[in-house]
């Protein structure tokens, strides 16, 4: 879904839109109304700063973008990309672009604009882009954050998609007079501050060429550079045991390892400890209401998917069947099936590091490394060399 703000957002909202920030006293926003943005696709590029059809407007945005992005070639993730106007500028400057938008019509136009270029486009929610283990040098977002129900959560997700030293480029503003919508620069600076090593705000209202007219409201870009020190995402994995069996989920529609089996899992959010994260993920994915007493740590693994993925730390928690209720598939858009499998006869169509973790757990190990090499498959391959290395004893599998 594109949430790129029209020239006068307050005047072009649907009759009865979702209001994700109503509890904050904000005007109604069209975020959840996908049909609204589908209908807007046909005329979306009519706005000077959307279609960039005027050569002067296009040149002004190209110059700004060149100053905001790192030297090419960089991997740029354009979220809420709309019809791809900024994506096209980035590609023309030598960057590799991935665009995400919930509107299929917007994405169709973007694909047409960038046909033959180093670009890919996904129809998906910009707040939760399905890019799997990919990491980017830049996350570029224009006029999207203002319309999301939880901007802070979206910023944390986006920051997690950046390589160390990557940057967020957030074009935002505050529009309207009687009932303004948007995010003031000071508020966005406070939201981004905990994530960034450095931030800077560049005000854009004074440059009418960018907008194709004079504007008086607040428009700006916030550029946040993430720390260059090494950081890793923390995963949590539930090994739910029913006698000699474990519960596995078949991934679907996630953009990573789809079609393969994996333990119910997720990653710790900002401020969560690993046990809290496991309890939350178990509730979200398979409907279990676990307590801390239901969980025991089985194994800890540092793992890394095939390059260019970044390494992660995975905590495998064990729980017994019956704890927290009966498991069921709460996320059918991300999980095609739940099934029980014997721990001593696991199937081969599994995510490789999860299979290695379960094999290591069965062998009695507590600490493992699982580090893919270039050319390795994400899926477990029984004929390939084992990448599992025990840090507390012999190498699993010999």
Give your account of this protein's structure.
Strands 9, 10, 11, 12, 13, 14, 15, 16 and 17 form a nine-stranded mixed beta sheet that branches. This protein folds into two domains: 9-225, Rossmann fold; 233-390, Nucleoside Triphosphate Pyrophosphohydrolase, CATH 3.90.79.10. The protein contains ten helices and 17 strands. A hairpin with a 7-residue loop joins β13 (296-304) and β14. With 398 residues, the protein is of the alpha/beta class. One of its GO terms (molecular function) is methyltransferase activity. This is Methyltransferase domain-containing protein. Keywords: Hydrolase, Methyltransferase, S-adenosyl-L-methionine, Transferase. Residues 229-363 form the Nudix hydrolase domain.
